[in-house]
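@channel anyone free to eyeball this complex?
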Amino acid sequence: MHMADALISPAVGGTMWAATAGVAAYSIKKLPRELDEKKIPLMGVMGAFVFAAQMINFTIPGTGSSGHLGGGLLLAILLGPYAGFLTMASILTIQALFFADGGLLALGCNIFNLGFFTCFIAYPLIYKPIMAKGYNPKRIWGASMLAAIVGLQLGAFGVVLETLFSGKTELPFGTFVALMQPIHLAIGIVEGLVVAAIVSFVWKEQPEIIKKATSGEAMGSIPIKKVLTGLALAAMFAGGVFSWFASANPDGLEWSMLKTAGVEELKAPDGIHRTLSKIQSKIAFLPDYSFKAPETESAVSAEKGKEGEAAWPAVSGGTSVSGLIGAGLTLALTAIIGFAIGSLKKKKSDLSA
Amino acid sequence: MSNIMNSMFDMRLLDDLARKETAVHRMHPLVKFLTTFVYLIVVVSFGRYEITGLLPMLVYPVLVLTLAELPIRPILNRMLLAAPFVIGIGILNPVFDHQVVMVGGLAISRGWITFFSLFLKSLLTVCAALLLIATTGMDKLASALRMLSIPRLFVLQLLLTYRYISVFMEEVSQILMAYSLRAPQQKGIHRSAWGSLTGQLILRTFEKAQRVYLAMCLRGFTGEYNTGASKSITAMDLAYMAGWCLFFALTRIYDIPMLIGLLLTGVVQ
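replying in thread with the prediction:
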């Protein structure tokens, strides 16, 4: 469920970083000042706990397979939503750095998918209202199940949207959703069962831990009204950003262009338009989203357009061959650089030894 | 079980590597952090049909790897471990995109090209993140985050989580070992023990947090985690970053392998 760097575009990664940073800043602000010093060790140690607990395999009855803990919902229940979100964020950061689970660019997406939906939607809007009438085993099970499933479904949907807006895969929306949601329904059910089992146990043994968290005594509580306003704002923001992506997405354009223009090279009109499109093709950080004519043609020889403008010998038929040769040479050069430096270093250390 | 041992081993290995003393390790952490970010952004900004243009980006990991004297195998292993998710999603590209293109006389479907491009990007990005931590280490990285004005509370929390991960992994592996000795031939934790096994650990976690806090107070903790004197950014650091950024920009703007290839085939003709 962790998004990888390779699957996102800089724009989507940046947007989600901004959203996550906003939620994190808000969470930090909401943590009661006088308590935060005391709670930092608790958050840190709980983060390490979840990290390690994720490696416990829970056998799923009747299937022979096993599932494991995600952690976002459990952290929200035990620490409250703000501290839970921040703790989840640090867990995901460490996973991205040390285990290549997700990536640094995709970190914003991952924290949002796994932290925001569990701590700021599933917990305050589902778990807490059900629990408001008081804790009892039945309610713990119901609330945990429902909150875990909803949290994971939203997270999975987030993955789908982020991947599609990044435009790195050819997966159609419907297929992707049909793949992701059922898988995460199963994962959500297991997560719900595990969380319920753990919360029931802690409630039985040391109810004050959970009482403190739910009453907001420990970490401050979320006023529902504020959450809803925040959500509405976020939805508007997201809607704006996403619709911009959608309208800028040239997929349809690309295809229709390929059909109408065939393999012929599209020539930009002379004059300012040409200069502009040249500049744009050079600086475009989002080649898939911009009007970059050469891209619409066959993949590897797509560079034809660029090369044509440069003063290189025109080898129109053999461009792809040139590409292959160049690619091979680049790889060889890279390897040679690596080996050369490696052996130089070795020599140096041998001499100094 | 082996999973948790592997993770512990990995973290220690990266910690050890970060303690080396090479030119790359001596670079300012903030500079390395920012360079990594620029690298990642440039790599993922390549178009989805791009393969040749991406190849020069390999120079960065290869150079850093050799200059920092890092072992190749463990880094490579980690890179491949991260691949399944990307492969899982990317492998469907050839299914949905049958458009055939000719590459050097070979007919290849466009889906395969996007897939390879995606796979290459995945390897490069994963490698860059691993190299960052293997040449910088968590403490120095945290000081870089503070310089970027990431709030104290978050950085502190991150460091504490990191610090205690090894403690908890050991604890969990002991618990799992004890459980498996009492419940042999069982793949995971039975449902009847889900709550108590993990719950016990949570109760212990809360107690541990309290002890940690008291110990920190006794040692004069006032809310700041001191990572030692941080050195200032030198001209060398700036040159390192500027050099790489220039290289990334050139690679992004010009398809270098294609230029080399064209030059060569032009000469041959």
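from a first look: Chain B has a mean pLDDT of 86.
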